[in-house]
């Protein structure tokens, strides 16, 4: 075993050296560095991955990555929303430091980025699929991305050559483009970093057309908290506009025609819902696609009209519609990951390539009655993270270390043997490949900013240790929440004012101050950013 030769060095350099040596052993060239394929889907809840114990869906290809790699069970994002999470991947920094705090901000591509550093170090770099950072990609040899959120059917793609429309289903197309790029790479002597980023399963969950009704056959189990009344929580949970009952659209989200919804007296929660539904059929789908979807949703529309459900019965029915479509988009992600892995095997690339699977954040699948994300509660704060690193001594193991998306950039740089810039907030996860470390991080940090905004989730920051979570909602309310995740994993009872938890509360507040100081964030900075954001909104 080569391990013994490295006794006495630090855990980090040991693990890194071991990982690199193991990788090199698999390669013809002793000096070669691993390729990296970073797979990020959009809004993929860990509750919908069978490697994480899902009761909703089997995901055999993602599970394969977990069986042959490591599954991180306490992986968290710093800001649970699309664009900020992507900016954190590229910079290794929390939102307040990389300048991208919400889905409105434009990413500053002139700052130091992961892909830029990798390119300087001799990697060929590419991003294919979802980008969602508004500014043109920088630091890539090749980029071919969806504009904005992108479309499910016949989407536009933007590259250095301009914009074009591609016929097909977005998840299949992104995979085709990724495989094409791998196949056509000119400089095969260089290792590569490929961001293979899916749009799916982002709202509004339009299914793939090869087996769109797969999840219509049997109902999905309902979460325990589908009818949460938020009694044990504060104002923010009660006022958030992301309930399946009241805020999920019957038309755009559940695919009832605007005419059928209106005929039973249902008005859309927001004006754009019906337009969004019509836009899919009128602007992007072709006749063949319309026909398949007409067959799929025709019986659902007939059932909707016949049952004429109200109240909790309608919420239950909407939840089933939601799961049918959401899970179908994930089926396609999983199938396509299988296709990519098969390609890597066929080209003998799999043993030279680190494959990461993650999502830009978690998502609510009916827990607390919600869809969407944004809160620091577990379902959206946590994100799936699986790393298949060839040569790793431990395969199929799970990790409980507290890790965050600020760690992605340092990890990839570490794997490539590139120095991690001192101002990145994250740490390399490579030491965790060899063994778990519950002291890896004392607390995961969180700060959400997009308020006022869609879904009305109030601004908040907080920390999570292995056992406790402390949150502060600081704008237009001043409310704290404290949860004991051991006794209350569903976070139903705020313990902030419980006398029995006074010591925990004070300790957590001290730790929060320490963590904020470490990262250069503070309530004062948060208040200044509120002012800036509100002024910018007024100027729109
Ligand atoms: Ca997202």
**CA distance, first residue to last residue:** 63 Å
Mean pLDDT: 93
CATH third-tier fold name of the domain at 446-539 = Arylsulfatase, C-terminal domain
Q: Catalogue the ligands.
A: calcium ion
How much β-strand is present in the residues? Answer: 5-15%
Question: What class, by secondary structure content?
Answer: alpha/beta
Report the sheet with the most strands, covering strand number, pairing sense and barrel closure.
10 strands, mixed
The CATH class of the domain at 446-539 turns out to be Alpha Beta
From the alpha-carbon coordinates, what is the Rg to the nearest angstrom? 23 Å
**Distinct helical segment count:** 16
How much helical structure, as a percent, in the residues? 25-40%
Unreliable residue stretches = 1-30
Q: Using DSSP, what is the number of strands?
A: 16
The CATH architecture of the domain at 446-539 would be 2-Layer Sandwich
């Amino acid at each position: 075993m080569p391990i013994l030769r490295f006794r006495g060095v630090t855990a980090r350099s040991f693990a890194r050296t071991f990982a690199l040596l193991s990788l090199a052993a698999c390669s013809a060239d002793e000096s070669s560095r691993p390729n990296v394929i970073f797979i990020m889907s959009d809004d993929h809840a860990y509750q919908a991955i069978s490697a994480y114990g899902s009761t909703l869906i089997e995901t055999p290809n993602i599970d394969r990555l977990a069986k042959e790699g490591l599954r991180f069970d306490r992986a968290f994002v710093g800001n649970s929303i699309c664009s900020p999470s992507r900016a954190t991947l590229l910079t290794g920094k929390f939102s307040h430091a990389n300048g991208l705090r919400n889905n409105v901000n434009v990413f500053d591509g002139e700052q130091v980025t992961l892909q830029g550093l990798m390119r300087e170090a001799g990697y060929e770099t590419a991003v294919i699929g979802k980008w969602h950072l508004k500014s043109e990609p920088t630091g890539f040899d090749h980029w071919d991305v969806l504009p904005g959120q992108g479309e499910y059917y016949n989407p536009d793609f933007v590259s250095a050559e301009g914009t074009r429309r591609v016929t097909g289903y977005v998840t299949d197309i992104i995979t085709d483009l990724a495989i094409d790029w791998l196949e056509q790479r000119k400089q095969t002597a260089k290792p590569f970093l490929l961001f293979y980023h899916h749009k799916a399963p982002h709202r509004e969950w339009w299914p793939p057309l090869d087996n769109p009704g797969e999840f219509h056959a049997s109902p999905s189990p309902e979460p325990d908290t589908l009818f949460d009344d938020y009694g044990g929580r504060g104002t923010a949970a009660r006022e958030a506009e992301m309930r399946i009952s009241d805020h999920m659209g019957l038309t755009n989200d559940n695919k009832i025609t605007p005419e059928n919804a209106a005929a039973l007296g249902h008005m859309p929660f927001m004006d754009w819902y019906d337009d969004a539904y019509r836009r899919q059929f009128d602007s992007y789908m072709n006749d063949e696609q319309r026909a398949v979807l007409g067959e799929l949703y025709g019986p659902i529309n007939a059932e909707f009209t016949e049952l004429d459900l109200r109240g909790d019965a309608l919420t239950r029915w909407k939840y089933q519609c939601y799961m049918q479509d959401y899970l179908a988009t994930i089926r396609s992600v999983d199938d396509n990951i299988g296709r990519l892995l098969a390609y890597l095997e066929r080209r003998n690339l799999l043993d030279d390539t680190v494959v990461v699977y993650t999502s830009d954040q978690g998502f609510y699948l009916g827990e607390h009655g919600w869809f969407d994300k944004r809160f620091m509660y577990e379902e959206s704060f946590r994100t799936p993270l699986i790393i298949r690193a060839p040569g790793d001594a431990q395969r199929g193991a799970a990790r409980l270390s507290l890790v965050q998306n600020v760690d992605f950039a340092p990890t990839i740089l570490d794997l490539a043997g590139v120095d991690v810039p001192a101002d990145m907030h994250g740490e390399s996860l490579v030491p965790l490949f060899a063994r778990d470390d519950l002291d890896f991080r004392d607390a995961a940090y969180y700060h959400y900013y997009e308020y006022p905004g869609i879904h009305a989730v109030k601004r908040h920051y907080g920390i999570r240790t292995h056992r406790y979570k402390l949150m502060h909602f600081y704008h237009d309310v001043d409310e704290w929440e404290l949860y004991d995740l051991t006794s209350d994993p569903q976070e139903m009872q705020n313990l902030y004012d419980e006398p029995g938890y006074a010591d925990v509360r004070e300790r957590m507040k001290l730790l929060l101050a320490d963590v904020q100081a470490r990262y250069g964030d503070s309530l004062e900075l948060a208040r200044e950013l509120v002012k800036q954001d509100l002024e910018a909104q007024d100027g729109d």
